[in-house]
Amino acid sequence: MAYHQESESKEPALRQNSESTQLESLLTLDGVEEILGYRFQNRSLLEEAFTDPSVPDKCFSYERLEHVGDSVLNLLFTKEHYLKYPDLPPGALTRLRAANVDTEKLARVAVKHGLQRFLHHKKPLLEEQIREFSQAILDYPLHSNGLVDVPKVLADIVESVVGAVFIDCDFSMDTVWKVFKDLLEPIISRETLKIHPVTELYEVCQKRNLKVKFVDMWRETRAFDVLIDDQLVGRGTYDLKKEIAHNRAAKDALHNIRRILEEE
Fold first, then answer.
1. What are the residues facing 228 on neighbouring strands?
2. What residues in the chain have per-residue pLDDT under 50?
3. Going by C-beta distance under 8 Å and a sequence separation of 6 or more, which residues neighbour residue 186?
């Protein structure tokens, strides 16, 4: 009898917790829709779009919608640039599209509009990674070109929301572009597109017949050195990702070699 009474006392609390969770979820969905300026017909798509694979009690995650959204974004920017820049060759169009759909650019969109606040995940380090990314990009108003560490999940949720809207609006590309065009601002244009520091370093040196060599010391010291004509000209370090250390070394060398060439 005592056990039966304990069960009855717990049941209202459990029901209250469940209702509270459902209300919180509903408010979350409302918040996302306000940011998008779009009301979903099938709101389960929105829940799926913000569910990370790390959540153990869900039978779905944003991965399938991310796959769809990635393709949709590529096609939308292909169309936009094709019409806007009738004189640009395919190679230039490809670089322009890549700059607008790469991981850092989309991650910036997520942070700008606070989309990360609605992500359901079980990643203990993610909040700190997002905070560090948000701080790091302050030094690069448009794009760092590989100089900051980007939590990929930020770009993933932008792509997954694009995919969710695309499916919810019966696959209308025009509707998706209408929803996301302003959210994706600032869109990188032909005038604001920057060359990646590694590419730019090679281009600068090739014009002057200078030999560039990257020395990989990342495993030992988390650093790269850059030698130009066998002289140390730049160094870049980053503890967590080898690629960022490599890019930072190129950026440092580019800055130094320009200064050296100006002094000559």
1. 212, 231
2. 1-26
3. 142, 192
Yes or no: say if 103 and 152 are a contact pair by the CB < 8 Å rule. yes
What is the pLDDT, as a whole number, of residue 13? 43
pLDDT tens-digit readout, 201-233 = 999 999 999 999 999 999 999 999 999 999 999
Q: Quick check: helix, strand or coil at residue 195?
A: coil
Residue 205 · residue 227 · CB < 8 Å: no
- The span from the first CA to the last CA of the chain, in angstroms, equals 94
Note the pLDDT of residue 15: 43
CA distance 238 to 216: 12
Please tell me the predicted confidence (pLDDT) of residue 12: 44
Give the Cα-Cα-Cα angle 3, 7, 9 (nearest 5 degrees).
Answer: 115
Q: What's the chain's length in residues?
A: 264
Q: CB neighbours of 173 closer than 8 A, spacing ≥ 6?
A: 72, 75, 76, 79, 166
Question: Cβ–Cβ contacts within 10 Å for residue 89, how many?
Answer: 8
Q: Can you name the residues that pair with 232 across neighbouring β-strands?
A: 227
pLDDT at residue 29, as a whole number: 77
Cis peptide before 12 (omega within 30 of 0): no
* 232 touches 225 (CB < 8 A): yes
Q: Check: CB of residue 166 under 8 Å from CB of residue 72.
A: yes
Which pLDDT value is given to residue 25?
47
For residue 196, count other CB atoms closer than 10 A to its CB.
17
Please tell me the distance from the alpha carbon of residue 159 to that of residue 9, in angstroms, as a whole number.
45
pTM above 0.70, yes or no: yes
Quote the DSSP letter at residue 51: B
The token duo for 168 is: 């919810």
**Number of separate helices (H) and strands (E) present in the chain:** 11, 3
